[in-house]
Amino acid sequence: MDLSIIVVNYNTFKLTRDTIDSCLAEPTHYTYEIFLVDNKSTDDSLEKLQEYFKSETERGILKIIPNQSNDGFAKANNIAIEQAKGDFILLLNSDTLMKQSTIDKCMDYITDKGHDDIDALGCKVSLADGSLDKACKRSFPNPANSFYKLFHINVDSDKNDYNLDDLDDDGIYEIDCLVGAFMLVRRTTIDEVGLLDDAFFMYGEDIDWCYRIKQAGWKIVYFGQAEIIHYKGASSEDKNTKKRNPKIIYEFYRAMYVFYKKHYTKKYNFLVNIAVYIGIGVLLVFNLVRNAFRS
Fold first, then answer.
1. What single-letter DSSP state applies at residue 173?
2. 278-289: b or e for each residue (b if 16 or more CB lie within 10 Å)?
3. Selection from 142, 99, 117 nearest residue 228 by Cα
4. What radius of gyration, in Å, describes the C-alpha atoms of the chain?
5. CB-based burial of residue 21 (10 Å sphere; 0-12 exposed, 13-18 middle, 19+ buried)?
6. CB 4 within 8 A of CB 90
7. What confidence tens digit (pLDDT) does each residue in 204-250 have?
C-alpha cells in the first residue's frame, strides 16, 4: 500500500463528506486507503457518513473508526496511524478539498529517488477566499517571532519569520513547519520519531511533530506545486453569532503552553519563561471575554 489518508470527523457531516469525496474523485496511480475516524460525534454525522460511504466501506477503500470518546485530534489520528498500511501517511483536515492532481503531484515528488531525504511534505493551502493559509509555510514559533507577529511589529525578516511571507507561494522550499490540514509523512519517519503527542487536544500537534522530525535530522518541504482548499474555522464557529466554542479557544492557548513547556523551558531563562506563561494566560482570558460579547 502506497498511501493511507486519515480524516477525523466531529459533527461535520457535509464538510467531511466533501473532503473524502474530493479524495475519491482524484485519479491516481498510487494504491491508497482512507481512514475516517469519528470522535464521538454528538449529532448524526457518523450515521450519515456510514450510509453515504457504504459502497466504499464495503469495497475496503474506506475504513471507518467510531471512537467511544472524544480525546482530541492527535489521539484520533494516532488510532488510524497504528492501523494504516501505507508507506506514507497523509493527515487531512475534514474541512479541506483536494484540487486537481494534488495526491499524485505530492506523491510523485516525495517518492522521487532524488528526494529520499524528504520525510514530511506539505502543499499550498488556500483559504476559501483564495488567499494563502499562512500556516502552511512557517518557522517554529519562539518568544521573539511570536511577539512580533502578535503586535504586528515589522523587523528584519530573519527575526520576524513566524510566517515565511518572503517565499513564493508556488515555490518549493525546505522549511521548519507544516500545517496539520495537510501533512504527508513517511511511515519510516513516524516509526523513528513516534506518533503525534496526544497531550495536544486539537492545536499544536502539527508543530510539535515537525519539531521532533527536524530534531531527528530529517527534512520538511513545502511543495507549492500542489494545492488544497482549507475552509478554516468552518467547524468551530456558531453560524448565527460567529462565536467560537470556548473550549476551542482554551485548547488553542493551552497548546501554546504545552509546546513551550515541552521544548523551550530549558532554552530560556526564568524571566522569559514567566513572561511567556503570563502572556499566554492574558491572551486566553482576553479572547474568551471578547468571544463572549460577540453577537
1. E
2. ebbeeebeebee
3. 99
4. 19
5. middle
6. yes
7. 999 999 999 999 999 999 999 999 999 986 655 445 556 889 999 99
Cβ neighbours of 139 (radius 10 Å) = 15
Residue 220, H or E segment: strand 219-230
**What tens digit of pLDDT does each residue of 82-127 get?**
999 999 999 999 999 999 899 999 999 999 999 999 999 999 999 9
Cell triple for 67 = 471512537
Cα–Cα distance between 166 and 179 in angstroms, integer? Answer: 18
Give every CB contact of residue 166 below 8 A, 6+ residues apart in sequence.
157
Reduce the DSSP state of residue 229 to 3 states and report it: strand
Report residue 277 CA to chain centroid gap. Answer: 24
Q: How far is CA 242 from CA 93, 113, 229, 286, 290, in A?
A: 21, 47, 21, 17, 12
Single-letter code of the amino acid located at 215: Q
- 172 neighbors 222 (Cβ within 8 angstroms): yes
Cell of 9: 470527523
- Chain centroid, CA 190 distance in Å: 15
Position 5, amino acid: I
The answer to whether residues 31 and 1 touch, using CB atoms and an 8 Å cutoff, is yes
Number of other CB atoms surrounding residue 77 within 10 Å:
26
Which sign does the torsion angle of CA 209, 214, 217, 220 carry? positive
> Which 3 state secondary structure label does DSSP give 232?
coil
Distances (CA, A) of 292 to 180, 193, 286: 28, 40, 10
Give, rounded to a whole angstrom, the gap between the first and last alpha carbons of the chain. Answer: 49
Of 192, 189, 193, 186, residue with least CA distance to 3: 186
Q: Burial, 105: exposed, middle or buried (Cβ in 10 Å; 0-12, 13-18, 19+)?
A: middle
The set of residues, in sequence order, having a beta carbon less than 8 Å from that of 271 and lying 6+ positions away, is none
